[in-house]
Amino acid sequence: MNVNIRTPGSATRQERKQLTRQALLDAALELLEEQSFSSLSLRQVTGVAGVVPTAFYRHFEDMEELGLALIDESFRTLRAMIRAARADPRTNDHVIRNSVELLVGYVHEHDTHFRFIARERFGGVAALRHAIRVEIRLFASDLATDLARLPYLERWSTEDLQLLAGLMVNAMVSTAEAILDAPPNNPTAEAEIIATARRQLRMITLGIPQWRSSPTSKPR
Amino acid sequence: MNVNIRTPGSATRQERKQLTRQALLDAALELLEEQSFSSLSLRQVTGVAGVVPTAFYRHFEDMEELGLALIDESFRTLRAMIRAARADPRTNDHVIRNSVELLVGYVHEHDTHFRFIARERFGGVAALRHAIRVEIRLFASDLATDLARLPYLERWSTEDLQLLAGLMVNAMVSTAEAILDAPPNNPTAEAEIIATARRQLRMITLGIPQWRSSPTSKPR
DNA sequence: TCAGTCGGTGCACACATGTTCACAGGGTAC
DNA sequence: GTACCCTGTGAACATGTGTGCACCGACTGA
Predict the structure, then answer these.
(1) Which chain B residue's Cα is nearest to A206?
(2) Spatial distance between the Cα atoms of A115 and B199, rounded to a whole number of angstroms
(3) pTM of the full structure
(4) CB contact under 8 A, A124 and B39
């Protein structure tokens, strides 16, 4: 009955299981760089993971369950990113420049995760689509509460902040997707994307001071 | 040798072929409402189209070729939309309201096409991805030349216009995707999306007058 | 009218897939 | 130390898949 209080060797069984579970996730992610989830077969995954097909069921009931686990894993890294952004003291100086830089860096570092999310955001599996949608909404909400702390957004309603955050998240998503789809090892193309992202964010923020003039209700 | 000058019955052969070709395209589009292209099988398509599997090769060499044909078909309707927008005289009065209305109407009318494009824009088949990317770029360019005719954008550089058009297209794409993913038969949810789209476009346009202050080169 | 072209059929094959079942072998609990 | 639990194995199956091939019947062109 004593579950947690044990000698260090006690976790070996679970550790080994966790290990092959991670191997399955990694294998899937690797394969998903070049195909979409709906065309990903259980046998492909187990093949790359170096396990027999039937072993799959020891870890996931479904392929769908594995997909949801991948979404979870992917957004964990995203949350880590925004947490890092919050901790970074420089963000107050050149918000846009640093944000874009941070985003681009993370996209490169975790390109498989980002590519997976981008691909399945409107992919063929409904469960994955919805899960991703929920996570993105949560992400935008997080950003909105962050924005609320900025001086010149003090008096904004939460609705407007959500709107602004949504606009920014859209821009970020588009940027990430553009980077992933850009020809690799082509610095100029990527620099162009980065510059565009900066200008887009700049254009959005330039609209902010004008926004107060209109009420929260739908403008005529 | 006389190809075109013939009795009306002459085209019957080609007409019938074109008919089943269209049946294949329609069948694929129907199936693609609930799955992604990479998981779409040749036999599924022919099955729904009411043709034997091997008949497929009389019309397309590949499934990929069918996919490209679908992209072509989809963007034909999109081009029709922008042409209608140009022809509409009211667009000068309430640009944003009318644009959003037009977009939403078209998305509903051709939801299968839009859904297909949204799904395959970053889907698992590289050829489709690239074709869609090209078409979207063309679409943004078209919009940019349209924007160039507006009075208060007279002195903008083509680069900035492309940037602005890209921003707007992004917003439109996001809106279309949101509508497609919204729960059906839920007017309030859709009204919310429409309102958000309007405000997003409004926020973008509000940034326009401020833009002149920065040069076309990358801002520090 | 007659040979020919061509869209559609039916059969066949090799192969990949999901899932089942009994089984093994070693860490775990007592 | 022993019985048990649990992760991974191997064979087997029904089913779905792409594609080659010979064939047919009707429309076509002269």
Answers:
(1) B207
(2) 29
(3) 0.87
(4) yes
